[in-house]
């Protein structure tokens, strides 16, 4: 994992620069800076309201009437925020695609799954009806659906949750995207099925050399499946970098807190953190974690820490970054 | 790594300071200007109805043949009718009858609907089926036709109109109550109460009823306008209240023959009726959107 | 962390005892013609044996469709099992529930959907007062103080009593549900996924609360969960369910350290662990309970299935002194 990171460190496929999203008066993302290398998997972790899903949806430019500022640079396309909706429509499915948490809701209940997949294939690949059907059967086979020919004519509700998510994976990979965004793809599924789906997504994206962003709440799962991790808190990236660095040599107190809450098998002692994420109406002026931080200084309350590389000299955009005045 | 602490704290500080959960929202009257206007109009009607003897410039049933069918003047702001009665005064007194009939008829309908709907929703089985077919039969007829039928049995007069309109509205109320009961009955908090072995009737009283009454109260405010419309239609057809009672429907009917050269005779009560119905509908919708948890997006 | 076995072989009556409990639901036969009334039996529980000793904490673990929720309804006396015997302190649960309020007072429940289990038109104070009044726990003048005490016990401020459930966060609502369950001073707390669907920090707060409650009040805890980490933290004992049957039970640490049933092993491997390579997942999905596999019900997915697994249906049998497993060829850990 690490050698790949080093190898591609200089040419990120996706770069977010000061991505800021306002919904009404609430600033739900605040100056998010992230990069993702070619073929890498990045996990966005954090608690609800941290803005993990918002980042993924913002990259797809599906945020509706929210105000988006900053830049989302996709290699070869420039800033996605500068594109017209028509250009964006072409990119979705071809270069970017997304897997949602609730596959049952994301699939159209009134069309067969085969038709939904072949429609995507015909739109993104320009295939004929017959070619699309053949390709769809191939894709269904590749995502591990038994009896792919028969399942083509199944409606979404006739499939189990795991099967629906497999169909979603097949649809999202139909256009051979360079970047796959998976928003909690397994949190609605049973643990044994979860393992199947995560492996499936990783195998297929790695085979195609595609990059992948996982939105996850499970730190342990993130460590197992992703090359790099970005920890978010209240709409800001507080720590990012290679998975091993962030989880084993974390410097931000919030990463420490988040990790200490993870229950592994055999965990017998647990320290419960106090308080919850502040609401957008009462967001602290300085560091957003300051109100709950055991290491907070007076400076933290008044001044927001910027996300800076840990190694000041010669740090690439994919290196270990941290936003804290008093790191551990 | 300091993951291990000897003892978990027995008591935890609250996750959110509770006062932050309180919505810091602007007043409903600022956020909904149409609602505010509608409330003002409704209150104006209520005041006119309550204090009609003080507000009205003339007696509504005093006939003055010297001023028959006058267009609006300074003395008679809304003009006079074919008997020389002051239309403004009659419209003001008419508000009294409209609101009395509307409110009481709806209360009769709501009370009857609550009883039948609760019984149907809670009983299940054959009795539910029988009750619902009865309601379906009632609903098959428009409330106006039904009210006409009841008037035919009961006879004319304000009290009879109240009863007839009220009875005709039991059907729709019963149906909404029943569907609310069916929804509430399967909620987890009902099962939780049963788990505590709280007697069935007390569960109905403490948990089902309050969760059904509130949507019903909202329905009541919305349906007052419907009751007023039905009662006015009855009067317009000449089978509601009897002349010379100052009723809007009756006044519109009386003015009908003169509409080409004395349009104010029908237009003034018609306008009063329309304005009240619009205002009541907006008020009812506003209350529902404001307080119905199902429509509240931010909860 | 496991308690020493309390006087082994002593005839201590368990709080709950399930003997060969079956629960069969008649459901419309799949693919039946319109207007046909054909039904087929869905075996949601199929020969469940379980006993819950006083003061113990038991995790019931399984995936969706394993029958945990059906088991829970039988334990609470909400449904009568269609076969076998379900006993509470030696008496059938249905009888115990029908006779007075003692059972309802002694066995309290915390729902997964805590918000749905609280009447939205009642204040938190009124919600907690309901069991207090119903079971005559405190005289009326002591009610307010008791509510404040209960709220404090679950880590909520006393002024929460005046609020409505809609004004509280997800974690706070679960605390209220726990407070209401504690109000009747029960000795058994049954919880259905009481910490799932929450952020990890909120989950940690609730788990430490539940653990301290269980220790301080000597509660017997039956905790349904799908998360082995939660089970391992909170519960001394574990029962793992698959397709309506308990396939393995015993002390949590022993079972998770050396699972004997291949399904337990697969669940164990599927649980995320820091920097462990992703486990090789079980193939396929849980079969439909309408069409149970022949022989061992796990044989269709079992990585260690042998020929006799397809013909013989293994029963839950003893494995050592405190464990039991339903497998013909249990995994042996050298």
Count all strands of chain C and give the number: 12
Give Rg of chain B in angstroms.
Answer: 26 Å
User: How much helix, percentage-wise, in residues of chain B?
Assistant: 55-70%
Count of discrete alpha- or pi-helical segments spanning 4 or more residues of chain C? 10
Query: Largest protein interface?
Result: A-C, 42 and 43 residues
**Mean of residue pLDDT values of chain C:** 88
Q: Share of helix among residues of chain C?
A: 25-40%
**What coarse outline of chain C follows from CA principal-axis ratios?**
globular
The CA-CA distance between the termini of chain C, in Å, is 23 Å
Largest sheet composition of chain C:
8 strands, mixed
Classification by helices and strands of chain B: mainly alpha
Describe what you observe in this structure.
The complex is a heterotrimer of chains A (328), B (299) and C (334). Chain A is of the alpha/beta class and 328 residues long. Chain A is 35% helix and 22% strand. The longest helix of chain A is centred in the middle third of the chain and has 18 residues, at 191-208. Chain B has 299 residues and is an all-alpha fold. Chain B contains 13 helices and no strands. The longest helix of chain B has 37 residues, at 87-123. Chain C is an alpha/beta fold and 334 residues long. In chain C, strand 4 (83-88) and strand 5 (91-92) form a beta hairpin. In chain C, helix 4 packs parallel to helix 6 and helix 5 (143-153) crosses helix 6. The model of chain C is unreliable at 1-8 (pLDDT under 50). At the A-C interface, helix 9, helix 10, helix 11 and helix 12 of A face helix 7, helix 8, helix 9 and helix 10 of C.
What layout of secondary structure does this protein have?
The complex is a heterotrimer of chains A (328), B (299) and C (334).
Chain A lengths: L1 H7 L3 E12 L2 E12 L3 E5 L6 H8 L7 E8 L3 E2 L5 H7 L4 E4 L3 H4 L6 H13 L3 H14 L5 H4 L9 H13 L5 E5 L7 H18 L2 E6 L2 H7 L2 E6 L2 E7 H6 L4 H8 L37 H5 L5 E2 L11 E2 L6
Parallel strand pairs in A: 3-8, 3-9, 6-7, 7-8
Antiparallel strand pairs in A: 1-2, 1-4, 4-5, 9-10, 10-12, 11-12
Helix pairs in contact in A: 5-6, 6-8, 8-9
Chain B lengths: L17 H4 L6 H4 L1 H18 L1 H4 L31 H37 L1 H16 L2 H12 L3 H11 L1 H16 L2 H8 L4 H37 L11 H8 L8 H28 L8
Chain C lengths: L15 E13 L10 E14 L4 E5 L6 H8 L7 E6 L2 E2 H6 L3 H5 E4 L13 H11 L8 H11 L16 H14 L4 E5 L7 H18 L2 E6 L2 H7 L2 E6 L2 E7 H6 L4 H9 L46 E3 L3 E3 L9
């Amino acid at each position: 994992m690490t050698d790949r990171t080093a190898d591609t460190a200089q040419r990120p496929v996706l770069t977010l620069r000061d991505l800021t999203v306002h919904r009404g008066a609430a600033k739900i993302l605040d100056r998010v800076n992230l990069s993702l290398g070619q073929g890498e998997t990045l996990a966005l972790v954090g608690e609800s309201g941290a803005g993990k899903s918002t980042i993924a949806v913002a990259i797809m430019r599906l945020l509706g009437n929210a105000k988006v500022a900053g830049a989302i640079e996709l290699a070869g396309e420039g800033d996605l925020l500068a594109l017209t909706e028509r250009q964006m429509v072409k990119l979705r499915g071809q270069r970017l695609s997304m897997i949602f948490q609730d596959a049952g809701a994301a699939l159209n209940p009134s069309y067969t799954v085969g038709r939904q997949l072949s429609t995507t294939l015909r739109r993104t690949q320009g295939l004929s009806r017959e070619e699309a059907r053949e390709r769809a059967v191939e894709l269904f086979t590749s995502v591990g659906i038994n009896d792919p020919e028969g399942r083509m004519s199944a409606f979404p509700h006739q499939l189990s949750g795991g099967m629906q998510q497999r169909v979603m994976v097949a649809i999202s990979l139909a256009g051979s995207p360079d970047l796959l965004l998976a928003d909690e793809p397994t949190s609605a599924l049973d643990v044994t099925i979860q393992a199947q789906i995560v492996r499936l997504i990783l195998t297929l994206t790695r085979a195609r050399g595609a990059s992948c962003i996982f939105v996850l709440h499970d730190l342990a799962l993130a460590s197992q499946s992703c090359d790099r991790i970005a920890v978010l808190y209240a709409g800001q990236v507080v720590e990012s970098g290679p998975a091993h660095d962030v989880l084993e040599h974390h410097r931000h107190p919030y990463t420490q807190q988040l990790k200490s809450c993870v229950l592994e098998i055999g965990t017998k002692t647990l320290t419960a953190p106090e308080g919850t994420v502040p609401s957008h109406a009462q967001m602290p002026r300085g560091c957003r974690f300051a109100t709950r931080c055991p290491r907070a200084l007076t400076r933290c309350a008044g001044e927001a820490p910027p996300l800076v590389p840990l190694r000041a000299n010669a740090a690439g955009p994919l290196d270990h970054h941290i936003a804290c005045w008093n790191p551990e | 790594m300091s993951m291990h602490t000897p003892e978990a704290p027995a008591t935890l500080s609250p996750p959110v300071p509770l006062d932050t959960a309180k919505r810091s929202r602007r007043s409903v009257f600022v956020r909904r200007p149409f609602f505010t206007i509608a409330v003002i109009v409704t209150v104006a009607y209520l005041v006119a109805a309550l204090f009609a003897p003080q507000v009205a410039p003339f007696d509504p049933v005093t006939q003055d043949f010297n001023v028959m069918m006058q267009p609006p003047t300074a003395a008679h702001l809304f003009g006079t009718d074919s008997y020389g009665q002051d239309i403004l005064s009659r419209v003001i007194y008419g508000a009294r009858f409209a609101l009395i009939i509307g409110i009481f008829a709806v209360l009769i309908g709501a009370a009857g609907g609550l009883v039948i709907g609760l019984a149907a929703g809670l009983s299940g089985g054959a009795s539910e089926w029988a009750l619902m077919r009865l309601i379906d039969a009632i609903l098959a007829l428009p409330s106006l036709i039904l009210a006409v039928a009841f008037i035919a049995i009961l006879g004319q007069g304000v009290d009879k109109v109240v009863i007839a309109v009220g009875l005709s509205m039991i059907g729709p109320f019963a149906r909404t109550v029943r569907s609310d009961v069916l929804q509430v009955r399967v909620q987890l908090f009902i099962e939780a109460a049963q788990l505590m072995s709280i007697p069935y009737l007390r569960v109905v009283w403490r948990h089902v009823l309050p969760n059904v009454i509130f949507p019903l109260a909202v329905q009541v405010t919305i349906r007052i306008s419907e009751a007023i419309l039905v009662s006015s239609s009855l009067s317009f057809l000449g089978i509601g209240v009897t002349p010379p009672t100052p009723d809007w429907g009756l006044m519109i009917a009386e003015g009908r023959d003169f509409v080409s050269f004395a349009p104010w005779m029908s237009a003034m009560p018609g306008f009063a009726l329309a304005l009240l119905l619009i205002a009541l509908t907006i008020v009812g919708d506003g209350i529902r959107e404001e307080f119905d948890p199902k429509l509240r997006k931010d909860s | 962390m496991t308690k020493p076995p309390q006087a082994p072989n002593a005839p201590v009556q368990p709080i709950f005892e399930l003997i060969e409990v079956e629960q069969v639901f008649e459901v419309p036969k799949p693919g039946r013609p319109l207007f046909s009334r054909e039904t087929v039996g869905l075996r949601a529980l199929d020969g469940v044996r379980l006993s819950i000793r006083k003061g113990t904490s038991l995790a019931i673990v399984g995936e969706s469709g394993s029958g945990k929720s059906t088991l829970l309804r039988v334990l609470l006396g909400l449904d009568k099992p269609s076969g076998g015997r379900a006993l509470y302190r030696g008496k059938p649960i249905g009888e115990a529930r029908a006779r007075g309020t003692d059972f309802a007072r002694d066995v309290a429940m915390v729902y997964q959907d805590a918000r749905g289990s609280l009447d939205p038109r009642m204040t938190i104070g009124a919600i907690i007062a309901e069991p207090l009044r119903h079971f005559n726990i405190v005289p009326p003048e002591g009610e307010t103080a008791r509510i404040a005490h209960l709220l404090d016990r679950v880590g909520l401020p006393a002024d929460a009593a005046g609020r409505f459930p809609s004004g509280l966060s997800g974690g706070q609502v679960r605390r209220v549900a726990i407070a209401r369950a504690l109000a009747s001073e029960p000795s058994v707390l049954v919880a259905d996924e009481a910490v799932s669907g929450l952020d990890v920090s909120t989950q940690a707060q609730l788990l430490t609360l539940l653990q301290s409650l269980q220790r301080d009040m000597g509660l017997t805890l039956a905790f349904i969960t799908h998360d082995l980490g939660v089970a391992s933290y909170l519960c001394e004992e574990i029962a793992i369910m698959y397709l309506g049957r308990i396939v393995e039970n015993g002390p949590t640490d022993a079972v998770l350290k050396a699972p004997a049933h291949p399904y337990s092993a697969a669940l164990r491997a599927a649980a995320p662990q820091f920097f462990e390579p992703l486990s090789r997942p079980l193939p396929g999905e849980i079969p439909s309970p309408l069409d149970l596999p022949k022989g061992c019900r796990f044989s269709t997915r079992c990585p260690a299935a042998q020929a006799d697994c397809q013909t013989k249906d293994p029963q839950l049998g003893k494995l050592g002194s405190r464990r039991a497993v339903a497998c013909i060829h249990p995994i042996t850990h050298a």
